[in-house]
Amino acid sequence: MADPTKKPLRETYTTQPVHRPSIRHHCGLFGIWGHDDAVALTHLGLYALQHRGQESAGIVSIQGDHLARHAGIGLVSQVFDEPSLARIKGRVAIGHCRYSTTGSCTENNTQPLLFSFAGGQVAIAHNGNLINAALLRRNYEDVGHIFQTTSDTEVIIHLLAKPTHQTKDNPLNHVLNHLQGAYSLLLLFPDRMVAVRDPLGFRPLVLGSLKNGAVVVASETKALDMVDATYVRDIEPGEMVTINDEGVDSRRFGGDMGGRGAACIFEQIYFSDPSSRVFGENVHLVRMAMGARLAKEAPVEADVVVPIPNAGQCAATGYARESGIPYGRAFTTSHYSGRSFIMPTKEGRDLTVKIKLSVIKEAVAGQRLVVVEDSVVRGTTTRGKIGALRGAGAKEVHLRVASPPIRHPCYFGIDFPDPKELIANGRSVEQIRKFLGVDSLHYLSHEGMLACVKMAPEKYCTACFSGNYPMNVDEPVEKFALERVQLRMFT
User: Fold this and answer.
1) CA-CA distance, 147 to 336, in Å (whole number)?
2) 3-state DSSP call for residue 462?
3) Could you give the 3-state DSSP secondary structure of residue 19?
4) Phi, psi for 331 (deg, rounded to 5)
5) Edge-to-edge strands, sheet with 92-98
6) Does 112 sit behind a cis peptide bond, omega within 30 degrees of 0 on the bond before it?
7) To which CATH superfamily is domain 27-271 assigned?
8) Are strands 368-373 and 396-401 parallel, antiparallel or unpaired?
9) Which of 27, 248, 326, 335 is 20 to 30 A from 309 in CA distance terms?
10) CA distances from 376 to 99, 130, 291, 319, 433 (A)
């Protein structure tokens, strides 16, 4: 008998218009202090972080006593060329590649943002999402503040520029205590660079060094490797690191978290590059462990284990090794089409998948396949890939997902705040199996996922799986909320 509490998964799920862009990631940060080629190295660092955001990119440098900026819409390779890099050349720079989790992809919203106020110039690059940005913005607009963007990041600048905040011994420290949500930040002033990680440590941020003594900050260690920097350490949750010609200074801000943390476990599952060290662990090894655990939890008789490229490859390797089933390939991939997960529209995602993946028909015809996916969000692109395998003659298709079902919205930097877009929200695994068209479907258990990482469970945010949020969200975050507020002001 059907469970009346479960919502049916109708075919219209794939065709209903979605009024917001696809589920996407956050952003990548890179900064360097004290190198003659700082801008060129920042450019390379952003290449290494391109997987974190493909909407826009920008660099701000120090030139004498002022800041210079170049930014634009598009990939790093589209935004920068030799003349633009030469125009902002300097010994200090910060860079950003963006996926917008609050505010549209527009020129005004490209980061790093650059502003002038009574305290001088400041540039800011942000990875994460502020859950109290709309409230803070309304409060400032009520007293006459004019905002130039619809990004939550700009709120930080208005807080910093407030005269009563400027009178504090450490204005930035005071401002940070007003923020709620996820934020790894790079701020650049004409005399210093400041790196910040929120008290719960949602997003990664690391320190590195170059042979000449230059200090490097990046979202992932892959970017350090790109510029031949040595990894020094992670910036700790609730730490503010100030870098200038005199050296590096560290101080704490925020209250006592009581041993809690909120490191986003989706960084390990999908977002971060497999070569990176994130939250103290190599991403590739964590994903392999998740695949091996999945093989223990959900064994099946099959001929070959194949990944859905590219994020599923590490987990599929772990599954194959643990199960003893040979590892193989079912798809060829194009490296020039981007990541469908972070494309801005459903049509763009579908087209990206078609361009990106081609089935190797002779490798799947007549075979019993274990298909390993890192995660299933909406399910529509996964369904298309499964259909392609069926069309190529696969005898059986058993889908294994190396993470639990994503049932709940994220308010901390992953763009799926609308639960209606999540295939697992309110639906049984059996309903999802039928929709995807696979012979069997198993997800990695929540306990199994946490067993594959080293930090204690209370150090991670797993809210998208469990619904247990690390902080109260009194006003649910909606991607275009700030734009709707702005629109109401002029209508």
Assistant:
1) 36
2) coil
3) coil
4) -130, 150
5) 66-73, 56-63, 92-98, 27-33, 215-218, 206-209, 230-234
6) yes
7) Aminohydrolase, N-terminal nucleophile (Ntn) domain (3.60.20.10)
8) parallel
9) 27
10) 20, 25, 15, 17, 11
CB 204 within 8 A of CB 272: yes
* Residues 305, 326 contacting (CB under 8 angstroms): yes
Q: What is the pLDDT of residues 369-409, one digit of tens each?
A: 999 999 999 999 899 999 999 999 999 999 999 999 999 99
- Alpha-carbon gap, residue 158 to 139, rounded angstroms: 11
Q: Phi first, then psi: what are they for 163, rounded to 5°?
A: -55, -40
Contact 427, 6 (CB under 8 A): yes
Position 490 confidence tier, pLDDT thresholds 50, 70, 90: very low
**For residue 454, what are its two tokens?**
């080293």
Q: Which two tokens stand for residue 257?
A: 């978290």
Query: Please, are residues 382 and 400 in contact by the beta-carbon 8 Å criterion?
Result: no
The domain limits of the chain are 11-18+282-466, 27-271
Give me the residues paired with residue 98 across strands.
27, 56
- Strand arrangement of the beta sheet that strand 368-373 belongs to: 304-307, 368-373, 396-401, 440-443
- For the chain, the maximum distance between any two Cα atoms, rounded to a whole number of angstroms, is 74
Does 27-271 match 11-18+282-466 at the fold level?
Answer: no
Q: Which of 472, 482, 382, 373 is nearest to 432 (CA)?
A: 382
How many CB atoms are located within 10 Å of the residue 104 CB? 17
Cross-strand pairs, 186: 125, 195
What is the pTM (predicted TM-score) of this model?
A: 0.87
Q: Please state the three-class secondary structure of 214-247 as a single string.
A: CEEEECCHHHHHHCCCEEEEECCCCEEEEEECCE
Q: Could you tell me the CA-to-CA distances from 47 to 76, 79, 93, 273, 345 in Å, in that order?
A: 6, 11, 15, 12, 23
- Tell me which amino acid residue 453 is: V
Of 288, 426, 445, 312, the C-alpha closest to 369 is 312
The two structure tokens encoding residue 253? 């801000």
Question: Please, where are the H alpha helices in 82-226?
Answer: 82-87, 133-142, 154-161, 163-166, 171-176, 221-226
* Cα three-residue angle 161-96-470, rounded to 5 degrees: 75
For the chain, how many residues are written? 491
Each residue's pLDDT tens digit, 186-237: 999 999 999 999 999 999 999 999 999 999 999 999 999 999 999 999 999 9
CA dihedral of 313, 314, 318, 323, whole degrees rounded to 10: -10
Residue among 27, 97, 410, 464 flagged as catalytic: 27
Distance CA 342, CA 349 (A): 8
Contact 400, 294 (CB under 8 A): yes
* Token pair 């997960």 in the structure block, residue: 341
CATH class of 11-18+282-466: alpha beta
